[in-house]
Structures are given as C-alpha cells and as structure tokens.
Inverse folding.
C-alpha cells in the first residue's frame, strides 16, 4: 500500500468511526427526548399522556435493541483504537442502566430514572469516543 492509499484508508476509517458514534449520539438523544416528553405529555393532555405511558416500556425495549449493537460496535472499535477504559466503562455502565430500567429488574419505578441516566452516560461515552477519534493523527 502506498502512503497516499494508507492516508485515504485512515481517513475512511476515521470518518466511519465518527459516523457510528454520531448515530449512537442521535439515538441516545431520541431516547432521552422520549423519556423527558412523558411528564409534559401528561400535562398537555390525558389522551397523549396515557398513550405515552402505555408505550413507554415498548419504546425503551426498541431503543435499547438499537442502542446495544451500535454502541458495542462503536465503543469497542474506539477502545481498540485509543484505549480509553473510562469511555468504554462509561458506555457499558450506561447500557447496563438502560437494561435495568427497561427490564424492571429493580422495580418499575426505576425505569425512567435509570434509562435517563443510562442514556446520558452512553451519549457522553460516544462524545468522548468521537473526540478521541478526531484527535488521532
């Protein structure tokens, strides 16, 4: 491989890694908005509020099902590249909190708080991952 081909390959890998993290950040943001919309929906109208309450757990399972593979792939790839154990741990703990929230293993009352905290941790981990990737030469 010639030096110019190597540079193109590195740029492509960096772009792909950043794109994965950006998609994970967007997904985390959607989940966070969904969780935070519930109290406002209840205030704005009983029908909308009840619909969100009825679909809360299903929406969390769906978002978790999308977040797990995307986050494992992006954070795992980032760890191999820049070896940030803090970023990997933050993302893993966030995913675990999201799972505990949606599964109700510690009680249904913890679904939204665990999910919100977990989503924020995952989002922050992907932001750290993106910044570390962009800092690499």
């Amino acid at each position: 491989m010639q030096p110019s081909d190597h540079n193109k390959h590195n740029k492509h890998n960096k772009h792909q890694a950043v794109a994965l993290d950006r998609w994970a950040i967007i997904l985390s943001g959607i989940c966070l908005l969904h969780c935070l919309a519930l109290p406002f929906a209840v205030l704005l109208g009983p029908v909308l509020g009840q619909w969100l309450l009825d679909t809360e757990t299903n929406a969390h399972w769906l978002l978790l099902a999308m977040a797990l593979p995307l986050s494992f792939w992006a954070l795992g790839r980032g760890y191999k590249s820049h070896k940030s154990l803090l970023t990997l741990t933050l993302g893993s703990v966030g995913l675990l909190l999201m799972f505990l929230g949606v599964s109700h293993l510690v009680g249904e009352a913890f679904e939204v708080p665990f999910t919100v905290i977990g989503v924020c941790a995952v989002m922050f981990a992907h932001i750290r991952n993106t910044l570390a990737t962009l800092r690499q030469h």
Notes: Residues 3-135 form one domain. The chain has one domain: 3-135. The helical segments are 3-44, 46-82, 85-103, 111-135.
